[in-house]
Design brief:
The chain has ten helices and 19 strands. With 356 residues, the chain is an alpha/beta fold. The protein has two domains: 111 residues, Roll (CBS-domain), CATH 3.10.580.10; 223 residues, Alpha-Beta Complex (Spore Coat Polysaccharide Biosynthesis Protein SpsA, Chain A). The strands form six sheets. It has a seven-stranded mixed β-sheet with strand order 11-10-7-12-17-14-18, with helices on both faces. The longest helix is centred in the N-terminal third of the chain and has 11 residues.
Length: 356
């Protein structure tokens, strides 16, 4: 049986962990992993949505991927033509369909990009104001930000801020609020000379107020659910699905959290009282969910933000939790979150979005 080598990097065994499937997904850049037996018979698929539901169900990423997979995946026969694949992709809004032979073995796959000119299935549109916190000094990118503010740092033919705004615009967002402080006039002058399909309202901080404190300046500007994002991160996810999740769960705040896989490169010792060694684990691995700096927020939160006070968004969230307000988490994969506030991350961002 001849197979398409392109899918080799998408295949995992049923006994491998969900964490491993997520790593494979991140490494390939696709949002799907194929679960097969040793004969390459397709047992199921795992998408980024499946992993999200698995995490939200309180399940462990160390569990076998067979427990998280969809055991009745969408497939086509190996002899299917492009018209059949196109019709099914449009109907089901999927980006990849495995092709299997008469024995159910994976032979190849078809991707949306192979059949359509547009980069992804038609996105559901959102009508959600977006607040971008762009007033910081960008000290992690010093000394370049001593001259050029972080929002104007170049990424290919765009600036960081343009990349962020354009990705929201692709989902229909057209009302943006950008907080400014450091080198505000440079940012305004740049966008005054750039044609955009959206409107930008600038909100000036006379002094740094933090990601939470800045919201006090928009109490009279935001009257419905809005998105808040830092200016040094990009979340490559379905923004419409994020907003829908927030509303369906009745959250006051939904924070987008990225999976994070960390390996301690040493033997980790557990020690009992008195110094006796209980156990030692060689290079243990841990999985975390970390906040990305991207939130969906109800406008009622603005009444909880004191005027003219420096406050972090995490402080506001902890206050909501203390008062029993619903705060939710929407997980995304590690690769779906790009922190572009450091030099090392800039190159990763360029590669991730095909800018180099």
């Amino acid at each position: 049986m001849q197979t398409d080598k392109r899918i080799d990097d998408l295949i995992v065994g049923p006994d491998e962990s969900v964490a491993r499937a997520l790593q494979v997904m991140d490494a390939s850049g696709d949002r799907i992993v194929l679960v097969t037996d040793e004969e390459r018979v397709l047992l199921g698929v795992v998408t980024d949505g499946d992993v999200r539901r698995w995490i939200l169900g309180g399940n462990d990423l160390a569990e076998p991927v067979s427990r998280a997979m969809s055991a009745s995946p969408l497939t086509l026969s190996a002899g299917s033509g492009p018209d059949e694949a196109r019709a099914l992709m449009v109907e089901r809004r999927v980006e990849c369909i495995p092709l299997v032979d008469e024995r159910g073995r994976v032979v190849s796959a078809v991707w949306w990009l192979d059949l359509f000119e547009s980069p992804a299935p038609v996105r559901e549109q959102i009508d959600t104001p977006v607040v971008v916190m762009a007033g910081g000094k960008g000290t992690r990118l010093s000394p370049y930000t001593n001259i050029l503010p972080k929002p104007l740092m170049p990424l290919g033919d765009q600036t960081i801020l343009e990349l962020i705004l354009d990705r929201f615009s692709a989902y229909g967002a057209d009302r943006f609020f950008v907080t400014l402080n450091y080198k505000a006039n440079l940012i305004k002058a740049y966008f005054a000379d750039v044609e955009t399909p959206y409107d930008i309202t600038y909100v000036h901080e006379t002094e740094p107020l933090g990601t939470g404190g800045s919201l006090s300046l928009m109490r009279d500007l935001l009257d419905r659910t809005f998105i808040l994002t830092n200016c040094d991160i990009v979340v490559d996810a379905d923004y419409a699905d994020i907003v829908r999740y927030h509303r369906e769960h009745g959250n006051t705040i939904t924070l987008i959290a990225s999976t994070r896989h960390e390996t301690i490169p040493y033997g980790v010792c557990e020690v009992a009282e008195g110094g006796a060694l209980v156990s030692i684990r060689e290079k243990p691995q841990f999985n975390f969910l970390v906040s990305t700096g991207f939130y969906v927020i109800e406008p009622s939160i603005l009444d909880r933000v004191p005027d003219g006070t420096f406050i972090h968004m995490t402080d506001i969230i902890n206050g909501c939790l203390a008062d029993g307000l619903p705060v939710g988490v929407y997980p995304v994969s590690e690769r779906s979150w790009v922190d572009i506030g450091e030099f090392e991350s800039l190159q990763d961002t360029l590669t991730h979005f095909g800018l180099v």
